[in-house]
Model the fold of this input.
Amino acid sequence: MANDVPASPDAQFEQMYQKYRGLIYSHLRKRLRGNPADIEDLTEEVFARAYRSLKGRSDPVIAEKKWLIKIADNLCTKFLEQQQAYNQVHLRAYTTTDGEVRSPLDDIAAPPGEDQPEWITEQQDLMRVVNENIAQLSSEVQKALILHFIEGWTYEEIAVHSERALSTVAKDARKGIDQLRVRLLHVEE
Done:
């Protein structure tokens, strides 16, 4: 049995990649049933993580197939959570008659065309209330809200910048919008 296991992590990785790449792709395709590019990316990420793990191990992996499927399942679960978080935040966006996708925070920032002093005063008051309520949120939630909805950063950019998981950034933004919605509903009452 020891003769079947390659001596170096590189050799073991190459053998695993050749032997199990198709299996891992099929496994992810069954779980995701979605975009082939996402499935391909996740397949490559499974093997990238396996390679990094092999580099740090002093002993070879014995149950390779089971180990790779476990990595694939963990990545797939995270991917689906990220997609769900992303969709929950973005489903609240709407499309205008001219095809522009907007969020409720966009409506606060831009007046409707002509200068209308009453509308401007209302918007300024609303912005003051929004800013006061944003200031009461945790710093990570504030950062996710401001960078995404006001500065226009993607969740991926925020995750890289803040060195946090993409799913965590998306959850923070969703949490912030939910908390603001609750707070602002109480203001309107």
